[in-house]
Protein 1
Amino acid sequence: MPYCLWCREAYSPAASWGTLFSVSLEERFCQICEERFQAIEGEALCMICGRDLRLLDERYVENRMCSDCVRWEKDGWKDVLQKNRSPFLYNEFMKEVMTAFKFRSDAILAQGFKETLQQYYRIHFPDSVIVPIPLSHERLNDRGFNQSEHLACLLEKPIQPVLVRRLHEEKQSKKSRKERVMPRSNPFEVKADEEIKERLEGQSVLLIDDIYTTGATLRLASKALQPLKPKSVSALTLARGW
Amino acid sequence: MKQFVQAFKEAGGWLFTSSSPPSKSETVPITSYDSHLNTSSNTPFNPNPELQEHLYGREWLLEELPFNLEIIQEHIAAGCVTLSPAICIDNKRPCCVRCGNVTPYLFSSYDCARCMKRCHYCRQCLTMGVVKQCSSLVTWTGPPPIIPSYEDETLCRWKGTLSDAQADASHSLLKAVRDSKDFLIWAVCGAGKTEVLFQAIEKLLANGKRTAIATPRTDVVIELLPRLQKAFPSVPISALYGGSTERIPGAPFVIATTHQLLRFKAYFDAIIIDEVDAFPFHHDPMLLYAVKKALKPSSPTIYLTATPTGELKKRFLSHRLNGVKIPRRYHGHPLPVPKSVWAGNWRKQIKNGRLSKTFLDWLKERVELQRPIFIFVPSVEVLRQLTRLLNEYVKAGAASVHAEDPERHQKVADFRKGTIRILVTTTILERGVTVPFADAAVFGADDHVFNESALVQISGRIGRDSRDPGGDIIFFHFGVTLEMVKARTHIMDMNKEGGV
Ligand SMILES: [Zn+2]
Ligand SMILES: [Zn+2]
Ligand SMILES: [Zn+2]
Ligand SMILES: [Zn+2]
């Protein structure tokens, strides 16, 4: 009998297509917990950031894009981020699970998202080169693992960790509102062997991160990658705020 | 010296504090400390009193300590502080030293960026901060701090009087504590069990003994603290729960959630567990382990409950555990006995947007009498449906609370004030919250979540105030269950024993 990753209750796995073909049954959420996640579905998603446009007032929608993305594209960030997709809404339950995953270092929780993330990769970003968003050295040491790398590993494809993140960025709360969206200097830079750098040239690159909030982190990472001349940079994030 | 190097290596070889995460330059390999160590053997070592207070009788993770590396190093060298691996691998199976976990599926592992190895971590005690294979537990192995003696003082300034039953219980408890014997206080809801403890606590503290009241529930810690501070104004009391900040390290009197006891080791001379049958204490081997670890060897545990269950009840009834029953409320009136009322297939009814006539009639009558009404429901789903229906059928201001409701405390306060007339709740409010002049209904009393102890606790919410010792408590059901019968019998037996 498998145990739920979250509530740790023993449960009997429902026979679904997923469970029929997966080899291991143990590392999943039970059905009750699974239902507490809120999937982002449907056709009406922002072409760029993948937000559900039906949740927005009409005023904030333009050419199948949300007004945030429209602003990014106009403000000199055109095509920096081609497309983000997040399978889940960052609801209260996701927040709880993410807190345990990131801040309590309960690394195994990521396993529960494996199937979903693999499916998203297959459908939206086939053959993309995978680059996880890095943590700064200190934070990595603190936590013991990089949550984005952990999520990227679930895709079971080669990973190219070409980015590094400079020292602790200042605490969010100490910054002005404007800076919170966009810091003065890019914390990301490329650090890898020439041979690895070349693997990105002319390729579709897929950044992996846990949460899409303002989209600034992903766009900064993409900016840092530009010297490697990727064909495009997209992102797969586990969850996003509405 | 060799020993601690070993412990260090097993612990991953790193030392750092949480306030300053290590960068490459701060993380010092153990060998560079050798020169420093030699100097300490000549002069007598004076332990840092703050570190001593912080560590004595405790078990902290190294990264939890708010002291710098150098101080800790000095004390390790002098033998006052000992580091040990937090996770032992015994016969290839991991074991968490902090929480006692040995269940394989409650461990996991990953490639750790700190120790650069495949690193096991414990999933059982995660809420207290992760324990990894490369974590170290820090304990004090130097001289114990001097504990203030209160012998010449009257510590307990509580001015009330005990009922006869309370006085008897208080006396027996005092004797049990003196003899270091475990003890059960089986007191009905509203018996005034906290006051029963005062005499024994006073004696313990006066003799320089460290005492804890532990409870599974944070709410109870928060509620008890001001009452105990008032009763023992000269004693430093530390309140510990998830999210609290400890301001009085080394306090002789601690009020804590049972989880927080995990950070103690052989500290207490007595632990009183309030609401011992409440979730998650009972059935949780970790919390039992925590109590055992926090107590000094052969020190007593005192159990406090209105509804002892399982092993505890068995031990008491077979005289393997000493204890007393307080079958009578402080105000001397009998406990209101619950009535069972058939309400038909309530599950189907609410699904179809209907409510049974018996339930509605009772509700309307109580609303007209202007009484606050608790309605206990078996699940969050029923809670949502019923609250919606109530606002449709009985326009009397119904609100709902459940465990994850962020406005929970505000809503309870509004219910007390009377701005919320009907409070629909899951079993989270079965303990603790009392409102004078209230009535209670259990909607769907035949659901399996309502066992004897939950139903007795719910019934215990009613009639606590001497101005209104009666009050209605109705079990609305679709078929009487054994648990309902047991709860009723339990209450009637207590009334009989209390001679009321
Ligand atoms: Zn579950
Ligand atoms: Zn968008
Ligand atoms: Zn543990
Ligand atoms: Zn490690």
Note: Residues 1-35 of chain A form one domain.
Protein 2
Amino acid sequence: MAEFLQSIVKRSPWIYRINAGSCNGCDVEMATTALIPRYDVERLGCRYCGSPKHADIVLISGPVTAVVREKVLRVYDEIPNPKVVVAVGICPISGGVFRESYSIASQLDAYIPVDVNVPGCPPRPQAIIDGIAMAIEIWRKKF
Amino acid sequence: MIRFFKVILKNIIQGPSTIKYPFEDSPAPEKLRGKIVHNADACVACHLCEYVCAGGAIKMQESEDHQGIDFVVWHDTCTFCGLCEYYCPTKAIHLTNDYHTAHVQADKYNYVEKTFVKKQPCICCGEPMVPISPAMVEQIYGQEGDIRGLSKMCPQCRRKILWKGGVSKS
Ligand code: SF4
Ligand code: SF4
Ligand code: SF4
């Protein structure tokens, strides 16, 4: 039974989104990929969900500010394994324009293992779709 | 009611508005600011792009053998703002409309545009210097070009020649 469930669950990862202090530019682009019929990322078999406990792929935007860091790590821990992390925008990847700011200690991959990077400020919706497609591939291999 | 049917009919004829990307290419507008390319032959190593860069993505460093300058743009901290291209006097740095930026974590620090701006010996004293590119020569001297060969000299020699010969050609 468990094997059967695993074989069907492989086809449809659920996506969760964390805002780690982003300026909202990247979040708007992520919402665009999901909500606007022109991009409709759910064609790829994935789905946005509202709870970290249901998620398989997590998209993180923002430079991980000192205030939000603990909260991001707590939410991240609630996501069941195996999980795939996508860093959206240059903020989580390198700190971007906020690098070396007083409220930012380090970039995302110092705290959480990141699998896919999608640079851009913000990235184009098509680039985010590319990133999600890569993440789905990696997620299937992790099973 | 009639309007309602008109909309339905129009939508049926038009088909779905969803693009097929990534199963099909999605063309980008010509002016979209995407990945950067750098043309080392046109670059005069003026460091302007490095100075104005909003994301701190450009790094220029003298190479170890002092034969040129290593020019690196790290796409993972570039905001694609286009300031570098705007301020570059020779347009050696250019933002293409290539938006395919997603990559796996292993490539994070290799996701760069890397070129080498080669130095040439000064025709007077032999000191290695970055030659002034043809694009820059045209900007400075206009159509007639650099008739006195000043663009192949290092700043010191150029200063000496100009002091001896005077600045004005007329
Ligand atoms: S990468 Fe740019 S658009 Fe995205 S959250 Fe950071 S500053 Fe905002
Ligand atoms: S586009 Fe902007 S951030 Fe990117 S290298 Fe040029 S100046 Fe720097
Ligand atoms: S790319 Fe342009 S602005 Fe940058 S150093 Fe070369 S010539 Fe100067």
Note: The pocket of iron/sulfur cluster (ligand 2) is lined by residues B 36, 52-55, 57-58, 73, 78-84, 95 (CB under 6 Å).
